[in-house]
Design brief:
The protein is mainly β. The chain contains 4 helices and 14 strands. Strands 1-2-3-4-5-6-7-8-9-10-11-12-13-14 form a 14-stranded antiparallel sheet. Strand 7 and strand 8 form a beta hairpin.
Amino acid sequence: RVDYLRLEVSGDVTDRIYYKWLQHLNRSNTPGQLDNMPSSIDCLGVGFRITPTVSTFIGKQYADFGGFEYDANPAEVYEYSDLGNEITCFLVGANLCWWLTPTQEIRFQIVDGHSGKADDTYGPLPEKVKAAKAPLGYTLNWNGNFLNEHLLTRCSFSLFHEGEKQNVYFLAAAWVQERFNLYFDVMYSAEDIDKLGIISGITYREDQPVRAQHSGYLSLVSRINYRIFPKLNLFAKGMYETAEVRKSNGLLLSGKYRTTWGYQGGIEYYPMKENLHFFAAYRGKRYT
């Protein structure tokens, strides 16, 4: 069974203009009603290198949420955390990247909040909830490099305006210690309307199939790598996550609704310096 097959085409038109196209070959081509972009297209757009330190990219693109698991090549993740698995990664918009110094980068991005209309994304909305006419998301991202690349950081804050008095606030902080090849992600999402949808899935009722409100998600993810030999790597990964209702609404009382423990371990063999690798992994998740 081939679950993930993607074509990537990228290149430079000039020294200052480049393009990128990522296309899933085994995903639906149905366009979103909001952005008119097929869901099979992850990325499609054009970038401009305005100066040696400032650039921009316009089109469907990777949302700059930050975090090392989120930014990793999906072929090397094996199984995502709950938050990483449910978050929307690719959205239409524009970003601006500015290297303040050779080791410090600031990124600002504006994207569509989702690809389809609110009803298609969330299903029936709660009473008195009015969807935004222009559901936009704004992200500010800081990527740092310290101690000669021994300490890397990714921090970001996102605000998604989904409707009248309905916003989603997403905070991510992550750092990696290259010397020990360890990363640690901390992410929290406070959602006036349940954007991730985990709480809505847990509490779904056929007689009242409305989207949950005032949800909150905490995600802690860490992975350790140990290169025994240049071509052989051992790894272990752990995840701890919670899903809660921050404030009682409708039939939902406030409190924690789910706790997830995830664990992975295995060995990877890299016959080449990059790209191709083989792996054997053990993984599991426990839900309470």
